[in-house]
């Protein structure tokens, strides 16, 4: 039989989380008490007012197709949110609603990249950035944000990485997996390079509402009209309103790019789920108390679990400023416990300590692992106790 697979999918790298996730599920099915710290979603239900709005829309018969780029009433809610929260002004033709921020990013790269175009991706990165770039025929160019730099890249690094093939740079702040945030000065310097080199900025702001210790999120698009014109802001309600399964994300930016994304969506998804769109209208237009309550809960967990995790031998942890992840560098712990890869180390923690963590190899940071604190404090503290015992039981000087 002829080869049935297209070349584009042959380049895909399987998710490094799959093996750990599958093994954790297998152990749980065997009745083993596994604590999962791999979750990339809040452990809160969607707020009740949003649920009610979804039910109300269905009962009113609002269950048909919508425009491919999103309901006009939802675009208005997004535009109002961007003005209210970020002091950014957009028109309806500069906004598209998609099937989650992941689909928005996929569609964006499909419409801006030609074969061989380069996209600069800071390390550590969210696992899907490189794969989406490759699927669009682009070339991921990696720039390492070291732990000494707070897992962020500098303007000088960006400038050095730009070539005549560079189309865009991705800035994810707050970051998955590090939880770190670019300061206003840092993003101003990066924006200056983007203007100097005439490249697009893809600003992934999905964790915007989950920031801690008095730090404020600042969108790179807020710097100036010129920076805004070359920035595509990507966001959604998955993390901010605990609506991961509703699959609603959006992009705001250049009208030509947004129009092309809308055209592509019309041939791929038709529209984001109608009921979810009406729920998102309420998410943005309704009370925001639940958003703040969730943020405070995550901050409280972080304050309690961070020092406990940092006390584990060989775990070097930068305190995150946002999102709900901790990204310890465990190279020292691996060296003293006999593991030669973070994947093997994470597998050992799962099978012997019964805690599921995500190896950092999938984020381009193979000496780290990601732990989500989107679970109860009791489980978090028990997970840290198990990991601590595991490391100490194997430690060799």
UniProtKB/TrEMBL annotation:
Top-rank lineage group of the source organism: Bacteria
EC number, as in UniProt: 2.6.1.-
Signal peptide residue numbers: none
Coiled coil: none
UniProtKB keywords: Aminotransferase, Pyridoxal phosphate, Transferase
InterPro entries according to UniProt: Aminotransferase_I/II_large (IPR004839), AspAT/PAT-like (IPR050596), NHTrfase_class1_PyrdxlP-BS (IPR004838), PyrdxlP-dep_Trfase (IPR015424), PyrdxlP-dep_Trfase_major (IPR015421), PyrdxlP-dep_Trfase_small (IPR015422)
EC category: transferase
Aminotransferase class I/classII large domain residues: 33-387
PROSITE patterns assigned: AA_TRANSFER_CLASS_1
GO molecular function: transaminase activity
Cited Pfam families: Aminotran_1_2
Cofactor: pyridoxal 5'-phosphate
Family listed: Belongs to the class-I pyridoxal-phosphate-dependent aminotransferase family.
Name of this chain's protein: Aminotransferase
């Amino acid at each position: 039989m002829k080869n049935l697979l297209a070349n584009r999918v042959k380049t895909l790298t399987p998710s490094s989380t799959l093996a750990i996730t599958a093994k954790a599920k297998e152990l749980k099915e065997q009745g083993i008490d596994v604590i999962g710290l791999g979750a990339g979603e809040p452990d809160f239900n969607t707020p009740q007012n949003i649920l009610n709005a979804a039910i109300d829309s269905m009962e009113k018969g609002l269950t048909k197709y919508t425009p491919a780029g999103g309901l006009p009433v939802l675009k208005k809610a997004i535009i109002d949110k961007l003005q209210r929260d970020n002091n950014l002004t957009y028109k309806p033709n500069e906004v598209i609603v998609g099937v989650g921020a992941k689909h928005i990013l996929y569609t964006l790269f499909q419409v801006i990249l030609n074969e061989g175009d380069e996209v600069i991706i800071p390390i550590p990165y969210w696992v899907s950035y490189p794969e989406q770039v490759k699927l669009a025929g682009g070339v991921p160019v990696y720039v390492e944000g070291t732990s000494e730099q707070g897992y962020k890249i500098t303007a000088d690094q960006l400038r050095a990485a730009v070539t005549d093939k560079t189309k865009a740079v991705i800035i994810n702040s707050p970051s998955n997996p590090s939880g770190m945030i670019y300061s206003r000065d840092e993003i101003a310097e990066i924006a200056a390079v983007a203007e100097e080199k005439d490249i697009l900025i893809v600003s992934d702001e999905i964790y915007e509402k989950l920031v801690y210790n008095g730090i404020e999120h600042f969108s790179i698009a807020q710097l100036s009209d010129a920076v805004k014109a070359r920035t595509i802001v990507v966001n959604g309600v998955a993390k901010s309103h605990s609506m991961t399964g509703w699959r609603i994300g959006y992009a705001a930016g250049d009208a030509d790019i947004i129009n092309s994304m809308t055209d592509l969506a019309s041939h791929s998804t038709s529209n984001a789920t109608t009921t979810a769109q009406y729920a998102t209208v309420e998410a943005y237009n309704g009370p925001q108390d639940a958003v703040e309550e969730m943020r405070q809960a995550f901050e409280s967990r972080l304050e309690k679990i961070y020092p406990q995790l940092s006390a584990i031998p060989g775990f070097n942890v930068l305190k995150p400023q946002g999102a709900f992840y901790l990204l310890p560098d465990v190279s020292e712990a691996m060296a003293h416990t006999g593991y030669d890869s973070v994947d093997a180390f994470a597998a050992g923690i799962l099978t012997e300590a019964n805690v599921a963590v995500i190896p950092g190899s999938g984020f381009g940071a193979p000496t780290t692992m990601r732990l989500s604190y989107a679970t109860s404090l009791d489980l978090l503290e028990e997970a840290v106790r198990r990991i601590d015992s595991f490391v100490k039981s194997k430690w060799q000087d």
